[in-house]
C-alpha cells in the first residue's frame, strides 16, 4: 500500500482537559478498555483508566512534536543507555502536562484520591543508580528545552532485583513491575530488527579493488520496540523512550516438543528472552560475561538500525548523518555501537571503510562516568571474536589506524602506545571498550569539573595527549520538576509565595530566596515543612519495618549504591564511635540523630553485602540499647528505588556525600538533597566541589583528604595501622566490629572487612575517620543553633538552581550535539 501524503491524513482533534470531560473519559476507559463497572472498580483499575486518559492527551502533543521535528528538519539526538531509572510516571506526566488539578477533581467526583492510586503504580525497573537516574532526568530535560530526542535501552522484565532482608542479609528477588502490563507504552511491531551473534565472516570480491565482508551469524533474534512518551515541562515537547524487547526467530521447536523434549523445544525462546530479563546479570562466570556482552550488542544494534532507517526516510543517503544525527553513548555499555555503525555503513549500505569511520567519529559522543578501572568495561578477545566476529575485524582495523597515528606523532613511548591500544595485551588479551568509545567519538565528556580533569590525568591520559581537544566537562544536573516540584510540593508553595513563579521555568531564579534565609518567619515555615516531610518518612519506616523514629531528631541520610568507595562503612564506623561516646558520657547534651541508609549491593559484590549486614547488625544493637535513650538510631530501608528517594530526599536534614576523594564522578543525590534544604557533609569529590562554590563554603561541611592528597598517600605508602592506633575512638570502634560485639552469632563475620582497613585502607576509611568525626560534631553544633541551621539550609535551596539538568542539556546541545 502506498504511503498517503500528509495532506490526506487527518489529525485527531486535541482533547479537552476540564474536569468534567476527564471524568467522562475515565468512565469510558474503565468500561471499554478495562471492562469494569465503576461500582466494582478497584484502585488499580482507576489508576489504569486515569493513565490512559492522560496518555491520550500526551499522545496529541507527541504527534505534534514528531511532525514539528520533520517539518523543521531538526537535528535529532539519540541517547543510548543501558539504564533509564524513570520511576513512577503518572505524577511526573500529569504535572508536566498541567493536568494535576483537573485530574484530581475528576477522580474525586468518584470518591477516588489521586494520591492513593498514584502510589500503586510500580517503579519501572529499568535502572540501578545514578547512571540510570541521570538518563531519566536528561530525557525529561531534552523534552523541556525542545530538543527532538530518542532514548534507547532495554525493556527489562525483572530489572536489577527487588531487595529484601533476611536476618540483615540482602536477598535478591526478581522485580515484577510488568506483571500486569504497562499502560504507558506502545508496542511498535513495525520497528523490529534482526540481531545476530556468532557465525563467520565471508569475503566477496566486488572488483579488483573492492572487497565486501558478509557476516553470517549462527544465531539470530528479533528486537522489537516498545515506546513510552517522555513529557517535557509544560508539555513543550514530548520525546520518545524506545526500549527493546527480544524474541526468537522460531518461538518453539515443534519437532523437539512433539518428541517429548519440552524443555529443549523452548531453548531458543529462553535464550532470546534472557536478553531482556535482568539488568547487569552477574558477570563472575563466563556465561554471565557473555550475556552482558550480548545485551549490550543487542540494544546497540537495534538502536542503530532504527536510527539509520529513520534517517533514510528523510534523506537520500548517509553523507548527512553527522549533520542530522547526534548519538550520545552513556558510559561504555553501548561502546560496541562504534564498531556496529561502521559495519552497518560498510557491509549493509556499501560505504567504504574510511567514509564510514569518518561519519561514525563525527556522529558519536561519549560520556564517561567513572575513574574505576573495573567499571571501564573490557571483554576477553576470544569471547568478543566468537560472539561478534565481524566487529572484531573492525576493532582491529580501527586500532591499526589509531596506533599508526600515534606512531606518526613520535611523541608517545611504547608504553603509552600500548595504553592507547584498543586491545589490552598486559595479560589475557581484552578489548577495551572505554578506548573504543573514546577514539570513535568527537567529544568525550566528564560529569563534574574535578572528574573531567582527573580523566585527563588518569584513565585517558595517553588518549588525551593524542587527541587533546576531545575531553570536555558537562557537570551533571537533576530535573527540578521531579526533585522539587513533585517530591516537595509544600516547599514549592512556600517558595512561590516568597519569590513568585519564575523559578518554575528557570531554576536559577531560586537565588532570590537568599533574601529570606535569615528571616525568622520564613525559617519557621521552612522548618515546619521539613518536619512534615520527616513525619511522612517516619510513618513509612514504622509501617514497613516497625521502627519508631522521632521527627525532631536530625535525619542523617545516605542513600546510594552500596560500594566501598562511597564509604557507607565510614558512616557506620562513626555511628559506632558515637554510640560509645553517648554511653560513656551520658551527662553531655547529645543531639538526637537518626542515621538512615538505603541502597543495593551488586549480587556478586561480597564486601558490599557485608556492609549491608553490618549496618543491620549495628542497628539491632544500638536501637535496642536502653542506655542510648533514643539519642541514636540506625535504619537500613530495603529496596531503594526512585519512589523511596522521593520520600527520603525532602526529609533529610543532613546529606552524606562522603566518597573517597577522586573516586565519585559527580553524584546527583548530593544535588537533590541540597535543593530540598539539607546540609551536605562531604569530601571534595565529584560535584561536591562545584556545590561548595555555588552554595558557599559556610553552607556545606567539607572534610577529609582531597583527590591529590589521596593520590599522594597511595603513591608514597599508606600506613593505616599507625593511624588507627593513634585514634582511640576509631580503634575501639573497629575492635568492636572485628571482635564480634555486633555479630555474637558469628564473631568472625566482619574480620576480613576490618582487616582490609588495617592492612591497606584503599578507600581511606581510617585516614579520613578523625576528620569525619570532627565534622559530625561540628554539624551537631550548627544543629543546636536553629537560626544558623535554617539560614544555611535555605541558602542551599536558593543556590542550587545551576544544578538543573536543563542547564546541562543546553550545554550538551550547544557544545557537543549542535542541536536545538
Please indicate the count of domains: 3
Unreliable sequence segments? 1-6
Sheet with the most strands: spatial strand order: 5-8-9-2-1-10-11-15-16
- Hey, roughly how much beta strand do the residues contain? 5-15%
What's the overall geometry? globular
Under CATH, the homologous superfamily of the largest domain reads Glycogen Phosphorylase B
Quaternary state of the chains = single chain
Number of helices: 33
Would you identify the CATH architecture of the largest domain? Answer: 3-Layer(aba) Sandwich
Look at the structure and give the mean pLDDT: 95
The count of strands amounts to 22
CATH topology of the largest domain: Rossmann fold
Give the CA-CA distance, first to last residue.
Answer: 35 Å
Q: What gyration radius follows from the Cα positions, in whole Å?
A: 27 Å
Q: Output the CATH class name of the largest domain.
A: Alpha Beta
Largest sheet: 9 strands, mixed
Overall SS class: alpha/beta
**Helical content class:** 40-55%
Folded structure, characterized:
With 820 residues, the protein is an alpha/beta fold. It folds into three domains: 88 residues, no CATH class; 377 residues, Glycogen Phosphorylase B (Rossmann fold); 248 residues, Rossmann fold (3-Layer(aba) Sandwich), CATH 3.40.50. A hairpin with a 6-residue loop joins strand 8 and strand 9. Helix 11 packs antiparallel against helix 12 and helix 29 packs antiparallel against helix 30. The N terminus is likely disordered. The chain is globular and about 90 Å long. The protein starts with 18 loop residues before the first helix and ends with a helix. The longest helix has 29 residues.
